[in-house]
């Protein structure tokens, strides 16, 4: 039984169809289809029910998918074990935030590709929440506060933040001093999120209101410097603007609690060596290059 056929089947099962699986694998749809037909012919069972609406797992396919995934994982571990020390190869799919992924994390991924010429790296930069398992990513880099999940996380560095506004906004509308006063101000938000603030050692939640929303931190920085309201942002995005005076901290008695940057991976007994190497490179880079303040 061909390992490539098993890997292809798992990708199709997880992606929900031949077309998205082909995109993940970087292959033509015809190649993906041929591998699936060969696998089904060898097993003598139909793994996928194909129709004009798409592809779905049969009962046999759903059962076989878990066994195939375990075989593929074990094969990857075996390959890594016999590689010369320090050598990485294969594919690494990473999801990273758009707000500062291209500026803060892209140099690390480029350095990793330079050090490991047999490794193929594919990165998706987006501020949306990426489902690692359903979308077939090996890991993601996430910044913020972690929510409970079955994913495995390792922190690469702390992330501190501030509430900031432009001097023009503060002059026109004043600076809130308490969470209660924040309710009367324009907030610049990603959605309908609640903001976490520290009142001494206690974390309090506030739900600000505002007319300007964006799903990208850099866009919120632009709105803040334009005087549209108060933004809740990490220092990574605002430190240069605060240093130049384009933005000023507000409500400093109630700072956001420290967040973090994390490498997140799906659960599994053996974290891939390539993920461990990426994590260590990110920790090293963050320690040396990223602004950290309290």
Summarize it.
The chain is an alpha/beta fold and 294 residues long. It has helices spanning 3-15, 18-25, 29-43, 59-82, 101-115, 132-135, 167-173, 179-182, 217-225, 235-244, 273-289; strands spanning 48-51, 54-57, 90-96, 119-125, 139-144, 152-159, 161-165, 186-189, 195-199, 202-206, 209-213, 230-234, 248-250, 259-265.
Helix/strand-derived category reads alpha/beta
How many domains make up the coordinates?
Answer: 3
Q: So what's the overall shape?
A: elongated
**How much of the sequence is in beta strands?**
25-35%
Give the number of helices: 11
Q: Which fold name corresponds to the CATH topology of the largest domain?
A: D-Maltodextrin-Binding Protein, domain 2
- Computed over alpha carbons, the radius of gyration is 23 Å
Largest sheet geometry? 5 strands, mixed
Mean pLDDT: 88
Distance between the termini: 56 Å
Please write the string of helix (H) and strand (E) elements: HHHEEHEHEHEEEHHEEEEHEHEEH
Identify the CATH architecture of the largest domain: 3-Layer(aba) Sandwich
The residue ranges in which pLDDT falls below 50 over 5 or more consecutive positions are none
Assembly type of the chains comes to single chain
Strand segment tally: 14
| Spatial strand sequence of the major β-sheet | 4-3-5-14-6
Assign the CATH superfamily of the largest domain: Periplasmic binding protein-like II
Main CATH class of the largest domain: Alpha Beta
What percent of the residues sit in helical stretches (DSSP H or I)? 40-55%
């Amino acid at each position: 039984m061909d390992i490539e056929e098993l890997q292809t089947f798992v990708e199709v099962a997880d992606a929900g169809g031949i077309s998205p699986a082909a995109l993940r694998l970087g292959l033509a749809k015809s190649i993906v289809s041929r591998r699936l037909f060969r696998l089904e012919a060898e097993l003598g069972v139909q793994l996928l029910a194909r129709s004009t609406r798409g592809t779905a797992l049969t009962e046999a396919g759903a059962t076989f998918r878990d066994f195939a995934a375990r075989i593929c994982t074990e094969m990857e571990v075996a390959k890594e074990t016999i590689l010369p020390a320090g050598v990485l190869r294969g594919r690494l799919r990473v999801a990273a935030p758009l707000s500062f992924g291209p500026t803060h994390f892209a140099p690390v991924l480029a350095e990793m590709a330079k050090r490991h010429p047999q490794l193929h790296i594919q990165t998706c930069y987006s501020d949306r929440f990426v489902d690692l398992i359903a979308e077939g990513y090996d890991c993601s880099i996430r910044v913020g506060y972690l929510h409970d999940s079955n994913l495995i996380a390792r922190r690469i560095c702390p992330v501190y933040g501030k509430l900031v506004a432009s001097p023009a906004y503060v002059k026109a509308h004043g600076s809130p001093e308490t969470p209660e006063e924040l309710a009367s101000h324009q907030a610049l938000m990603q959605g309908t999120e609640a903001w976490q603030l520290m009142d001494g050692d206690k974390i309090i939640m506030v739900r600000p209101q505002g007319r300007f929303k964006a799903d990208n931190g850099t866009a919120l920085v632009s709105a803040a410097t334009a005087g549209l309201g108060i933004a809740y942002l990490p220092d990574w995005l605002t430190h240069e603007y605060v240093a130049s005076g384009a933005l000023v901290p507000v409500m400093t008695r109630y700072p956001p609690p420290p967040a973090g940057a994390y490498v997140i991976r799906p659960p599994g007994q053996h974290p891939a060596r390539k993920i461990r190497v990426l994590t260590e490179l990110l920790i090293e880079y963050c320690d040396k290059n990223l602004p950290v303040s309290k």
